[in-house]
Amino acid sequence: MRSEQSNTVIELETKIAYLEDTVDSLNDVICEHETRISDLERICKHLYEKLETINDSTQQGKNSPESNQQIDHEIPPHY
Q1: CA-CA distance, 71 to 55, in Å (whole number)?
Q2: What is the mean pLDDT for each group of 10 consecutive residues in the chain (79 residues)?
Q3: What contacts 62, CB < 8 A, 6 or more positions away?
Q4: CA nearest 70: which of 62, 79, 78, 60?
């Protein structure tokens, strides 16, 4: 009887050790993903701001009379 209980305890300790290892591995992956997500959010914000700047400068350029004359004289890209 003692041997059976001892074997059961050993099996449970082994399973707990594997579960702890799995939890640690998953925690490492989650931390890595959080870092990558933060980096991607920072990059997206930078690109969005850059796009807004380009869009604003394009809109201002379209409103000037000189840009309208340039557009009239440009050769279409398919030529």
Answers
A1: 17
A2: 90 98 98 98 97 88 60 68
A3: 68
A4: 62
